[in-house]
Amino acid sequence: MMHRALIFSSLNPIYSQLSTTKASPDSAVFPKRDGAWIGPPPVFRLQNYKRTLLPPLCVASDSVANQPKMASQDEQDPRISKISSAIRVIPNFPKPGIMFQDITTLLLDTKAFRDTIDLFVERYGGKDISVVAGIEARGFIFGPPIALAIGAKFVPMRKPNKLPGEVISEEYSLEYGTDKMEMHVGAVQAGERALIIDDLIATGGTLCAAIKLLERIGAHVVECACVIELPELKGRERLGDKPLFVLVSST
Amino acid sequence: MSAYRDKDPRIHGIQSKIRVVPNFPKPAGIMFQDITTLLLDPKAFKDTVDLFVERYKGKNISVVAGIEARGFIFGPPIALEIGAKFVPLRKPKKLPGRVISEEYELEYGRDCLEMHLGAVEPGEQALVVDDLIATGGTLCAAMKLLERVGADVVECACVIELPDLKGRERLNGKPLYVLLESH
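Predict the joint structure of the above. Result:
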């Protein structure tokens, strides 16, 4: 039974309560390591913490409270329901038993596509994010418009042998076997703050590989962002301490 | 037509950001035009999109079709700015649901491009976007898909053209607009 619930609102009331001096809940995104504040990365001068802090994900996204009931208690951004209804579900693709979440119908609805991008841009604009990494191929559709709007560079994360020149690779597990994800050497510098974008998070394997690639070269992954989450596949847990932001949750 | 020839002042910045990688994907002299370095420069990437948007905004174009995968990078920002829908044209078996397919020739063998049925209505005005035109085979297949559903392909738009490969001639008289040429 398809049930779409809003995970949270982009106009998160918690944000305005955020203090720069108190310790924030673990789900908040801030430059912190081993319990202590770390200094700003050498290249980017951060004027004040508030600008770099992202609002903590609201209660419904905590793994303990990840119930549809909790999610529906949150205030719903009015744009979300149109976005959700623009997504088409195709049964038995690519294999029997899989209900495929097809975002191409969202791309045909100019207002809903615009709203999707706006929701991400509103969250990430002005937060000193200099890298938007998009996962091939549907991450290439959502990543660049976000990158352009927030003034970040776009870095494609690709299947093997697609990127020319020097790359680094990260292997990850599939249901049967493994696959590899690649990123260009030199695209991202150590200390840069990065976002990872894909259309959907299922098991989290691909996103996890993308996080590793960015961390291996010393970037700080601020958050993973997807249009859709399939919470039953527990991808969120596979991201470890990395926060996940989604617009639509589909069970 | 090309912005290169029109000498728009933004062109030089865009051109300088494109990296040429020799012998990729195969040895034997292919000089691969790598646009990923352009994407690392927010201003140059924005200028690239702006040049297309300035050309196509207000021209009643309701469809921007982008060719997998690098056409997915340039197509959506253009579509969003001009108020058109974005239609991905994909390799076989990637699009779920009902599709139409168009086969085309490669140097060795054949490949296939697919589009969703129902994505484009008859009479819609469409743009086809890709990062580069080489022989024109892929763009030609893309145009055929759109024409088969009754759309009118207004123009093909690419960042780079390799004029020596004469792709322009393969477009059956459809106009081609590029920002840069590489010989």
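The first strand of chain B starts at residue 19 and ends at 22.
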